[in-house]
Specification:
alpha+beta; Hypothetical Cytosolic Protein, Chain: A; 3-stranded antiparallel β-sheet; two-stranded antiparallel sheet; 4 helices; about 25% helix; globular; binds zinc ion; YlxR; YlxR_dom; YlxR-like_sf; YlxR family protein
């Protein structure tokens, strides 16, 4: 009888994360890491920001799905709504906006 642990033997599989929008599990490298800064969700482009992260396919349709199902407050464990305008700007290619520091 095959032991469950055998399936994880070697640990060579790429780390996977679930997209908070479409809920599909994908290699971590395919997903955009998002972090919360106060009441904003911001793209963690270098993967270095501290704190709890959420993963999203870099597509506006997944962002919209995540917003519609209120996935961000759940992912970041906050009660209120979060501003995703910087994530949207990033996905729409407006890098000037997405890199702006919240004031
Ligand atoms: Zn997705």
């Amino acid at each position: 009888m095959r032991r469950h642990g055998k399936l994880e033997y070697g640990g060579l599989a790429a780390p996977q994360r679930t997209c908070v929008g479409c809920r599909v599990r994908t290699a971590k490298s395919e997903l955009l890491r998002l972090v919360r800064v106060e009441d904003q969700v911001v793209p963690d482009l270098r993967g270095r920001l501290p704190g709890r992260g959420a993963s999203l396919h870099p597509s506006t349709s997944c962002l919209e799905l995540a917003e519609r199902r209120r996935a961000f407050p759940r992912a970041f464990r906050v009660p209120g709504p979060l501003d995703v305008s910087r994530v949207r700007a990033h996905l729409e290619g407006d890098h000037e906006m997405s890199c702006r520091t919240p004031s």
